[in-house]
Specification:
With about 300 residues, the protein is α/β, with parallel strands linked by helices. It has a single domain, classed as TIM Barrel (Alpha-Beta Barrel). It is built from 10 helices and 10 strands. Strands 8-7-6-5-4-3-10-9 form an 8-stranded parallel sheet. A two-stranded antiparallel sheet has the order 1-2. β3, α1 and β4 form a beta-alpha-beta unit. α3 runs parallel beside α4 and α9 packs parallel to α10.
């Protein structure tokens, strides 16, 4: 018997070559950033070969989904669109030749989205909440899924001292509005995933509140993504540098799953897959891999 979780209006999703029943499973999204200034790996996967190797290693480790980024969210000068395309498209093409894993691209640029979809991407992950409506129109003209994320600032600009009266209520209102915009642009609800944007234009107390009340995000009724891995709210909570946030990341991901998250975006894939599958089983969403302990006439040590 499974525990109660917020219901989904469109739980069964065809994403690329895969079918996900989000009423019964959680997808693990691995992060691969082809940027020289990634907040986590500091450029370790900036080279094309390194990025492709990281993608294939994540697939081998059990990732359901690979999220490829060419531009970090943090404030900084704009990257020319052609340069972003040159970063992400070769990775998509190389990965698609080797695997049918779900591929998403973390971008807010419509032309990058267009080229990514042509190259084989299945998902566009827009961390700016459809700041440019053309992006939604491009997704609508394809079979791709759209991730809509809450953030307040213009892309790659600072937003000092963000303030909310009720961060969860305001994020829910934003996401409902942006989902409506996407649907009006032609993207069906059955191809939309929502993300409250942990740490994006939010301080640690805001993000902890979002995590604590993640069920209110999930109650929107669309699959909700929790991008918690190695974020600063974990570092500030535990006084942990970026290389020491694995345990906190896993704890945050597991808690979000118990509150209705159906996709978790993670850096440490092997450990995350194990934590997610264990959580699914505890929740009654899946069966154990096998049963042996105390199942026979003789107890085994």
């Amino acid at each position: 018997m499974s525990v109660w979780l917020p219901p989904l209006r469109h739980p069964v999703r065809e994403i690329g070559a895969h079918t996900f029943d989000f009423s019964r499973r959680v997808a693990v999204m691995a992060v691969v950033n082809r940027t020289p200034d990634s907040f986590y790996d500091k450029g370790a996967t900036f080279g094309l070969d390194a990025a492709v190797r990281a993608c294939l290693a994540a697939v081998k480790a059990g990732a359901d989904w690979i999220d490829i980024g060419g531009v970090p969210f943090k404030p900084g000068p704009p990257l020319p669109v052609d340069d972003e395309i040159a970063r992400v498209v070769p990775v998509i093409e190389a990965l698609r030749r080797e695997s049918d894993v779900v591929i998403s691209v973390d971008t807010f640029q419509p032309q990058v989205a267009r080229h990514a979809i042509v190259a084989g991407a299945d998902v566009i992950n827009d961390t700016t909440g459809i700041r440019d409506e053309t992006l939604a129109e491009i997704v609508a003209d394809s079979a791709a899924t759209l991730v809509i994320t809450h953030s307040l600032a213009e892309p790659r600009t600072a937003y000092p001292r963000p303030r909310y009266d009720d961060v969860v209520a305001e994020v829910v209102e934003f996401l409902r509005d942006r989902v409506g915009l996407a649907v009006a642009s032609g993207v069906p609800e059955s191809r939309i995933v929502i993300d409250p944007g942990h740490d994006l234009n939010k301080n640690t107390l805001h993000t902890l509140e979002l995590t604590r009340r993640f069920d209110e995000i999930a109650a929107i009724g669309l699959p909700a993504l929790a991008a918690v891995s190695n974020k600063d709210f974990i570092g500030e909570t535990l006084d942990a540098e970026r290389g020491d946030r694995l345990e906190g990341s896993l704890a945050a991901a597991v808690y979000c799953i118990t509150q209705g998250a159906r996709v978790v975006r993670m850096h440490n894939v092997r450990e995350s897959v194990a934590a997610v599958r264990m959580t699914e089983t505890i929740l009654g969403l899946r069966d154990p891999a096998y049963l042996k302990h105390n199942m026979g006439d003789v107890n085994e040590e």
